Amino acid sequence: FNNIYAYLFPYSLIITGHSKGGHLALYSAMHLNKDIQKHITRVINYDGPGLLLSMLEKLDYDALLPKIISYVPQFTFFGLLFFHEENYKVIHSSAVGLNQHDPSSWCVSPDGFVEDELREESIEFFIKMNTFLYKMTIEEKRMLFASLFDLFTLLNIHSFNDLYHLQFKHLILGIKEIHYMNSHIRKRLIEFLRLFYFEFTKS
After folding, report:
1. What does pTM read for this prediction?
2. Beta-sheet pairing, 40-46 with 112-113
3. Concatenated DSSP letters for 4-49?
4. Separation CA 196–CA 132 (nearest Å)
5. Is the dihedral of CA 90, 94, 95, 99 positive or negative?
6. Helix, strand, or coil here: 159?
7. Rounded to an integer, what distance in angstroms lies between the CA atom of residue 115 and that of residue 130?
8. What is the C-alpha separation between 194 and 181, in angstroms, rounded?
9. What is the mean pLDDT of each run of 10 residues along the chain (203 residues)?
10. Residues 188/144, Cβ–Cβ less than 8 Å
């Protein structure tokens, strides 16, 4: 694919995405060959996680770093996960708490995004969550997030707004699902959900 692209499309390339898509934009840009990377003018991560430190150490991250920028709302959850060394801008959101992750709440003016400052609560949450994740191996992180997304899929959770509409039957279903998980991953997932729930109840 890399060789075909370089031959057929020798144009400027912008790689971008929101949330998990923003993380994938970073990941894919890092794994393109040098010929393709020369065409990249900008990699834009809209409130998505960064990369693992072990990954950054293996890849030629510095070469692309000046072309990478992240946009996050004033209270961000996903946008501070893992490691970020790129420039970032904080965008004012009209939503509250974790609902700021929805880009339709980000305020714009004729000149572009309305900028803001990162909230202290977001920085505190960043420290708590990344400290928690730092203690885990890469495989544990993979299994944790795979289990988390499986649980959200089972409960039909596709956005933070869906969390407000969970019923008792969803709670029972979620408990059953967690009960049958590997005991080690179950412990990690419960710790993660406890941190997540504490922040969600602030919203």
Report:
1. 0.75
2. unpaired
3. HHHHH--S-EEEEEETHHHHHHHHHHHHS-HHHHTTEEEEEEES--
4. 12
5. negative
6. coil
7. 25
8. 17
9. 62 89 90 83 93 74 87 89 87 89 94 93 82 82 83 78 74 81 83 75 59
10. yes
